[in-house]
Amino acid sequence: MSSKAAKDSGQGGNIDWDIIAGTIQEQKCILFIGPGVFGNEEHPRLEEWIAEYLKNDPSDLIRKYYAEDSLFSFKDPSAKTKATFALKKFFQEEDFSHVKELYRKIAEIPFSIIFTLTPDDLLQQVFKEKKVNYNPDFYLKNQPPRQVETPITPTSGTPLIYNMFGYVQNRDSLVLTHDDLFDYLNSVLAEQSMHPDIKQTIKKMENFIFLGISFDKWYMRLLLKMLYRLQGRDEFLRFANQAILQDDTRTLFVDQFRIEFVPEQIGEFIDRLHKHFESKNLLRKESGEKPNIAHQLKEMVGEGKVNEAINGLQTYIDRFLAENTSLPESSNEMLSGLGSELLQLRSMLRRLENRKRQGIISEDKADLEMNQITHSLISYLDEVEAMKL
Q: Helices then strands (H, E): number in the chain?
């Protein structure tokens, strides 16, 4: 290591910050963020914080909490459904100002891909707050990857934020019980639900950074195996923040997974990386432009506002056609056709909501139909995005 790099590494021991920063600048680094970033003095572990919150819910939802796996069993299926709404409220109501402060610095570091292993959307909120464009996606177990018209190409200008372990706005994706976990692992190991473009991007990576990851969970080994298998090479770099682990567990991740545990804690690691980019005037700037309409409506879909997104797209198409009377015939026909498809989609959603109110459709069937409607709407939004209207 050069004397400059050694000096820069300081308390970081043998870390060459120039190399880490280089992989980020070259868009060959993935940042993995786990529940450890949420810990504070009152609540050291996010998992126990969530468990305490759900146990205190007046609806008495929890039959048992399995601390070793951070999973639950619920009193009945309806209790699990209520728990998903309670989890959404948890991330809305609790004080995560310390997490957002960390995320503001992360948003300024030009990562092209960030995988989160928590189901919240706090990072997305910070990116919106800082006016940084990004592409959102999440892992929906046992479902095919969403179809897109244009390739998913994460860049430092428009990074990918990928909720790897479920997304609070989509309850089918959440991993709350052992059955959920087994379904999730089966889907992950079968490589069923991740978009091929994202898999190809992972193969090009040269550095993985793990912050706040629960390495003490047995299933983390399977997830890492899957990621390493996708990456396909053994010579890439792997760094993780200092973690409290049993000696044999640490040895496993050092010897088998070749992870280098650095002395810095999470905040210290990000501070040093942030200062490194700041010193070279390479921090990410605000995009200076609003996300396009398709991006905005996709965010609404991700928040569960499907009907509002359908109406928003219909309104946009109608207004665009009215204001652009000299469009090429092919574009005019395509947008008019999309308008007709949206009418059918709205009708399907209305019928589904009526059957749910009347109690004449099972929960599983309703979820399946809603997923089909959502997938169709996303594909229409991809078409609009590809047209660059």
A: 15, 9
User: Cβ(243)–Cβ(215) under 8 Å?
Assistant: yes
What's the average model confidence in pLDDT over 284-311?
76
Of all helices (H) and strands (E), which one includes residue 147? none
Compute the C-alpha angle 275/281/284, nearest 5°: 85
d(CA 205, CA 211): 17
- Top CATH class of 3-41+92-279 equals alpha beta
Six-digit token string for 208 = 């993985």
| Per-residue pLDDT at 250 | 75
pTM over 0.85: no
Distance of CA 261 to the CA centre of its chain: 24
Over 70: is that where the pLDDT of 233 sits? Answer: no
Q: Provide the residue ranges of all domains of the chain, joining segments of one domain with +.
A: 3-41+92-279, 293-387
CA atoms within 13 A on the CB side of 162: 25
Distances (CA, A) of 308 to 79, 216, 297: 27, 42, 9
CA distance 136 to 170: 13
Task: List phi, psi (to 5°) of 388.
Answer: 55, 50
Rounded to the nearest integer, the mean pLDDT of the chain is: 84
State the average pLDDT over residues 207-236.
82
Residue 118: which pLDDT band, with cuts at 50, 70 and 90? very high
Is the sign of the CA dihedral 326, 327, 329, 335 positive or negative?
negative
Contact 35, 118 (CB under 8 A): yes
Average pLDDT of the segment spanning 185-202 = 83
C-alpha closest to that of 120 among 37, 43, 195: 37
Count Cβ atoms within 10 A of the Cβ of residue 33 and give its class: 0-12 exposed, 13-18 middle, 19 or more buried. buried
* Angstrom distance (rounded) from CA 350 to CA 297: 19
Residue with tokens 């428009």: 158
- Amino acid identity of residue 138, one-letter, is F
Residue 270 has pLDDT above 60, yes or no: yes
